[in-house]
Amino acid sequence: MPTRNAELAAIFEDMAQLTELLGGNRFKVIAFQKAARVVGELTTDVGDLSRSELTGLDGIGTGAADRILEFVESGQVGDHARLAKQVPSGVLDVMNIPGVGPKSAALFWKELGVESVDDLKAKLETGEVAALKGFGEKKVENIRKNLAFAESAGQRTRIGTAYELAMRFVSELKGMKQVKRVEYAGSLRRGKETIGDIDILVVPESDKGTESIFDAFVGHDAVDDLILRGDTKASVRTGKADGGMQVDLRVVPEASFGAALMYFTGSKEHNVRMRERALEMGYTLNEYALAEKEDKACRVAGTTEEEVFEKLGLAWVPPELREDRGELKLAEEDALPALLKLDDIWAELHTHTTASDGTWSIEENALAAAERGFHTVAITDHSKGQVQANGLTADRLEKHIVAVRGVAKKLKGKITVLAGSEVDILTDGSLDYPDELLAELDIVVASPHASLSQEPKRATARLLKAIENPYVTIVGHPTGRLIPRREGLSPDIAALCKAAAERGVAMEINANHFRLDLRDTHARAALEHGCKLSINTDAHGPADLDQLRFGVLTARRAGATKQDVVNAMPKAKLAEWIKSTRP
Ligand code: DGT
Ligand code: CA
Ligand code: CA
Ligand code: ZN
What we know:
Number of strands: 17
Number of helices: 24
Strand order of the largest sheet: 11-12-13-14-15-16-17
Distance between the termini: 33 Å
Bound molecules: 2'-deoxyguanosine-5'-triphosphate, calcium ion, zinc ion
Oligomer: single chain
Radius of gyration: 26 Å
Number of domains: 4
Strand content: 5-15%
CATH topology of the largest domain: TIM Barrel
Helix content: 40-55%
CATH superfamily of the largest domain: Metal-dependent hydrolases
Shape: globular
């Protein structure tokens, strides 16, 4: 994201929070949040857009457009400063503690003079918070725990960690005779790159089973701390070694399962749209059912998601698209993309072996790919500049090519093994091997590894230069980000994708959950510009191949179909495409 956009997005986000805290209009809060999101996801600089282009963006009204133009001109937003003056900045930190929120933060501030998280801690100790109207010991204890947790852990967890943890709970619950259905919902089901907490829904075989289900849940191996246990919901926190995450379990009746799954899958913004639509059609929609507005006892749908969508005149929307990015319009027109599936992937085009920093041999690597039913695998070890990764010098690469071709011959008929390289894109955009050497390879993945805090203009020029190299097939992890600790490059993604589309090269979605690079919004931009995607695990050993799932989820969030992804091509077509990228 261009850095100026990030700054403006943060201003809008701030304005939403400040308005909420000051008890302002709820629609204003939503409008600011939406503007923050739209600006944050733009792949071009806000300064390049005209007033009519701005208001043409879904989610940018005239008010937001005025503020954007003001920001482009002056570097600030006057209304933001006016709002910010009314609230000490620490009050926002208090508001963002889980379990506090805008109402309580405003109350603490006005009644107790709490202007920072430290102030709040002190007032918790003195008992003044507990003495406030509406605050019992239980609520206070909850805030205390959330404070301690927020201090000890990062707030969001990578999807790979969250997914594994969720599956441990899901499989234990699935094995219980008291359980009829289990499904995970929330951001995990939508396939987001990071997860705040895990949401699980269960349908019991009968009401009598509910207590044993809760017993099993709160007693699970991974659980460190019970947050709450009620009649229909329990929340726990797992230990540090088990991801340190909050997990919410809700028990719902079978007749409400579809409505509940829909509600708790979210996103919140998507749910708002769905409820608006239901109201327009004379219904109400909540986590229990779709019902007649005039007579709430009259249920129209709720057992499955499909029937709720259908009654609302919509095709079923895959969870990955439920982000209020125009999916309801597509669902209404029955024009949703047929999203790529994990099973559509038949080729892995970015892997490492013991020749550089992998843990397996060429043959072990290729056999593992064959076992997954893949028709093609590319061996792409690091180039010489990656000294810490034991990158191959030109001499070593020559020998490596011979070794790869040997394995290719041996496995002929089983799987096609390509001799490739993950060649470093150097700071100035030149590649780490000369063209003559690249020409000897079957496939070239070019990736940035160093100088990842380069300024955006230079990063764009650097990557454009790599795309223009006649031997490059795929641009690997184009930004080089690492979740959550390294932001990576912020190139002009739209410009890169245009150039890649023109040259016929693919942009990678690196599927490793530390990377997910391209990210969902970038991949969406790539598709808009007609650029092909390549989803690769960058496997260094056997377990890494399982990361593919997260790359596919990211592609689905971008709206990708199997036609958009080179790894989904049949064998001959893939070979033809790779050839077409070379002189
Ligand atoms: P996360 O956990 O931060 O990664 O994101 P989610 O989307 O899993 O959010 P979470 O766990 O707070 O809530 C799960 C879903 O429940 C959310 O996606 C939509 C629904 N939901 C929760 N609170 C609200 C709400 O206040 N309004 C609406 N419309 N939906 C809500
Ligand atoms: Ca969640
Ligand atoms: Ca939750
Ligand atoms: Zn790499």
